[in-house]
Design goal:
Oligomer: heterodimer
Order of helices and strands of chain B: HHEEHHHHHHHHH
Number of helices of chain A: 10
Shape of chain A: globular
CATH superfamily of the largest domain in chain B: MetI-like
Largest interface: A-B, 25 and 32 residues
Strand content of chain A: 15-25%
Strand order of the largest sheet of chain B: 1-2
Helix content of chain A: 25-40%
Largest sheet of chain A: 11 strands, mixed
Structural class of chain B: mainly alpha
Order of helices and strands of chain A: HEHEHEHEEHEHEHEEHEHHE
Radius of gyration of chain B: 23 Å
Chain lengths: ~280, ~280
């Protein structure tokens, strides 16, 4: 009995020693701070935003950070209109948006966008040409690409999605998306929907991939973290947190925190590639 | 003293009434004003009857208008027999216990958040429809069934209240003449309640047209006019929810005001119909 408690306390002490320098280091910037940071926009960013917000709020109870979704378009629009402090986007702000709102972009991670299917689907590899034809509606049965004889259910995102923007540009080569495609409103919704439909095909941020959905290799390259990192998998984009002009106070601290080793580790833990 | 208090209360309530009326009119004005660039650029017929292809400069909302009314009408159609049966049982046919229990359940249903229905629909109904009938599972039929459940409390409560509002003397008279419970319901209560029930039907239809989340989660949101009940469709409300993130200055964003105006006009039409019917009922009684 005593041995166990001694052991536990030793482990606890070691844990504290290990943990304290890296945790306290980055978070000390939030000492004696208080106030609110409102975040909205890109849905790929949400897990990292929430994890970072949780750590900061646990460290300093005077700080409140709210995280909402909406998509990249919403992020840029809301930060530009001054409705939120940080507007996330999974694409660069357009020149006219930068000019109109005075948007300042802060890139803190790189994220791949991968094609996904239901785990039971035998099709785990497609050529870009096949993918293009599937999304154009020319191939509408899984048997054409080596799967079961069943209609393909095509899922896509709305126009303001940054994930769609990069997928459309780099995977489909700005090709047509058929009007029979079904629309889902976020990365999370895409994951749930594909996970529940054995005949689905869709695309999500690599950071959102887990065992409930299966990634599809494109031209033989799987959308894995390593492949995105090495540049072998080319359908990738930066994840940006945008502010209106040079942000002061807490907002600035939050963005700086994302770029500290600890913040970058959070991004890496969620399946994104750190920029530092 | 009493009089001045009365005058004070009256003026406060008048202010409330006037301001809410102004807000409702202001919303219409606001939608028209913000939609003006779209109406100037694109002829109204193209907006109402064209395809939706923002990359090709086409911002037609025909598919959405069609999808909205198809899903809403189908939902009310599914809901009608259910609500009729339920209101018959609650108002007269059921025993005392079952009437009270069913009434409580219906009242409880009004409080269930829409998203719960949507979630249950995704995990239970979508796979069932996909495996049982084919198609992608998300589509007109799926959304209509869940929507029917969602709007049923509105319909049931309206039906029940109208049936119970029929003059008790008539019902007693029929009873004295030896009419059975079913006869009293069908020949005395039902004819007397019809106009009230019709307004309940229209209000439920209005609710089905106005609901966003069920269609957004379950109808699939494809931008094509559905060719069958198993095909995906997009409603005006879901369209607004999906497109609202577009650039403020883009035509795609402007087009959601056309959707808003369409929904607004439909609501006005439904309200007028309800008003006409209730006026008739008052005239009869």
């Amino acid at each position: 009995m005593r041995k166990t408690s001694v052991r536990i306390s030793i482990i606890f002490c070691l844990f504290c020693l290990l943990a304290s320098p890296c945790y306290a280091g980055a978070l000390t910037a939030f000492d004696r701070q208080s106030g609110t940071v409102k975040i909205a926009g890109g849905t790929a960013h949400i897990p990292v935003m929430k994890a970072a917000a949780k750590r900061i709020m646990a460290y300093n109870k005077e700080i409140v950070i709210t995280v909402a979704g909406g998509g990249s378009g919403v992020g840029i629009k809301q930060v530009g209109e001054g409705l939120v402090d940080i507007g996330n986007s999974g694409r660069k702000a357009k020149p006219e948006e930068i000019e109109k709102y005075g948007i300042e972009m802060h890139k803190w991670a790189v994220d791949g966008v991968g094609v996904v299917v239901h785990p039971t689907n035998p099709v785990k590899s497609l050529t870009k040409d096949q993918l293009k034809r599937i999304y154009a509606g020319e191939i509408d049965n899984w048997s054409t690409v080596g799967g079961v004889n069943h209609d393909i259910t095509l899922y896509t995102r709305d126009d303001s999605s940054g994930t769609r923007a990069v997928f459309w540009k780099k995977a489909l080569g700005r090709g047509e998306i058929t009007t029979s495609a079904l629309f889902v409103p976020s990365n999370g919704a895409m994951k749930t929907t594909v996970a529940n439909d054995p005949y689905a095909i869709g695309y999500v941020s690599v950071g959102h991939m887990d065992a409930s959905i299966a990634p599809v290799a494109l031209d033989g390259v799987a959308p894995t973290l390593d492949n995105v990192k090495s540049g072998k998998y080319s359908i990738a984009r930066g994840l940006y947190s945008n502010t209106k002009g040079d942000p002061g106070g807490l907002t600035k601290l939050f963005i700086e925190y994302l770029l500290t080793p600890e913040g970058q580790q959070i991004a890496a833990d969620h399946g994104f590639i750190p920029v530092k | 003293m009493m009089v001045s208090k009365d005058v004070f209360a009256e003026s406060v309530f008048l202010c409330c009434a006037i301001s809410s009326a102004i807000i409702i009119l202001a919303i219409l004005g606001f939608m028209v004003a913000l939609g003006i660039p779209l109406f100037q650029e694109i002829p109204l017929s193209d907006i109402l009857n064209g395809p939706w292809a923002p990359h090709h400069g086409a911002y037609g909302i025909r598919a959405m208008i069609f999808g909205t009314f198809l899903i809403a009408f189908l939902a009310t159609l599914i809901c009608l027999p259910l609500s009729l049966g339920m209101s018959f049982v609650i108002s007269s046919l059921g025993g005392r216990r079952s009437r009270r229990l069913l009434g409580a359940i219906v009242r409880f249903m009004t409080g269930i958040p829409t998203v719960i229905y949507g979630f249950v629909g995704i995990f239970l109904l979508v796979p069932l429809i996909r495996e049982g009938f084919g198609g992608p599972g998300m589509g007109v039929l799926t959304a209509s069934i869940v929507l029917a459940i969602l709007i049923s409390p509105t319909m049931i409560l309206f039906f029940t209240d109208s049936l119970l509002a029929v003059n008790a003397a008539y019902v007693q008279a029929a009873k004295a003449l030896g009419a059975t419970r079913v006869q009293r319901l069908l020949y005395v209560m039902l004819p007397g309640a019809l106009s009230g029930m019709a307004s309940g039907f229209i209000l439920a239809l209005g609710r089905a047209v106005g609901d966003t989340l069920i269609a957004l989660m379950l109808a699939g949101n494809a931008v094509r006019t559905p060719q069958g009940l198993l095909e995906p469709a997009r409603t005006l409300t879901a369209h607004i929810a999906l497109v609202k993130a577009a650039d403020f200055d883009s035509m795609a964003f402007r087009s959601i005001f056309a959707c808003g105006i369409t929904l607004y006009l439909f609501t006005i039409l439904a309200t007028i119909m309800v008003r006409v019917m209730t006026r008739e009922r008052i005239a009869i009684s």
